[in-house]
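Hi V.,

You were right to ask for the full record rather than a summary. Here it is.
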Amino acid sequence: MPDLSRRRRMLVLAICCSSLFVVSLDNTIVNLALPSIQRDFGASVSALQWTIDAYTLTIACLLMLAGSTADRIGRRRVFQTGLLLFGLGSLLCSLAPDVGSLIGFRALQAIGGSMLNPVAMSIITNTFTDRRERAKAIGVWGAVIGGSMSLGPVVGGVLVDSVGWRSIFWINVPIVLAAVVLAARFVPESRAPRARRFDPYGQALVGLVLGGLTFGVIEGPGHGWGSPLIVGCFVVAVVSAVLLVVVESRRRDPLIDPRFFRSAPFSAATVTAVAAFAALAGFLFLNALYLQDVRGFSPLHAGLLTLPMALMAGLLPVVSGRLVASRGPRISLLAGGAGLTLGALILLMTIEADTPIGMLILAYAVFGIGFGMINAPITNTAVSGMPISQAGVASAVASTSRQVGSALGVAVLGSLVTARISGPITTGFADASRIGWAVMVGCGLVILVLGVVGTGNWARRTAADTAELFESPAPEPVGAR
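Predicted structure:
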């Protein structure tokens, strides 16, 4: 990549951050719009779950493929393609005639989304070669995430209230079109010196694991947990997971290298990401239904009530990042796990159809503090002790784990709550949702335990041992392709 002026580098950063902004904003806004979508289409709760999970599941499956493809054929090219697909998917979502079409268009949107954030981060890393400048650029990247999370509830509430839920997809289109044009003008093309080879077997097996598991969990309450379809989905997921380990162990460039999981910090970071994002996705999903369908608040009012959580989750990553840099990840992980546990516990103990607003705001703020502290140390812990050559792949697995957690959070918590609702949602939801908040408490406790186990001396030794495995790559087994 040629040397760029400071002004040009700042333009590249702004263009990359625009993709992050629309993707992050979209996630928050869509959750807020779910009750309106439900009323317009007469959609079931499982259909609402698929409206979220069609997006997160697709991204989880394709995230690592998008990154390796960009390294191979050109990062700017893949970034622009992702923008166009995301914009097209957004436009089609706004025109969806029924909930089935909306779910399909959300998957198209996610195909584009999978090409944006990881590729944009690669572009930023290659543009800002000075270590200090790169750190500042990544700080701006984190601030954009915080800003989009803070704006999402308010912007979403205003749009859904005044124009309708379809407008939440319109705002993506002009932003991505502008980013496509600006990327062509200002973002230089770049490729990796040695791109990882495409792994079709790993890619297919990851899709079967995540797809089978998510479909079984979401559709289980409707079809019956013992039905052949649901049992078959779980069998496919388990068998595919076993085959994934076997197949990936035999490939020179696996999609997911099983040896990574010999590192306790890496394994802990992966599980922490799944638990934290499952809790967040479950919170956003259940809370949107609770505030609007049970409490009768407008989308704008619901967005404003959720704002304390969004502000804490948006602002605290900066504090957490500095704490990780100076003291290591343990304090942030413990604070994050404690915040998620306490926030969910308050809701578990107090949630009713008429819970005082002050109590809700307190729980939301505490939950937001927990999530705000947890995100920064996930990547740091994942790459801890890894050789530089593997840091990018380890970070990509951590990012994929976040999406897997989001998909499972909506699937599992939505299904658990749906199965317990008897009668109208307005009267039965609060009591039925207690099991969801209890699961979130469990997620927080898991993070607390991993925050200790994954950051101690024993964990660091396993990371060092794992790093040695990659210093001289093992020869490819006979017959492996």
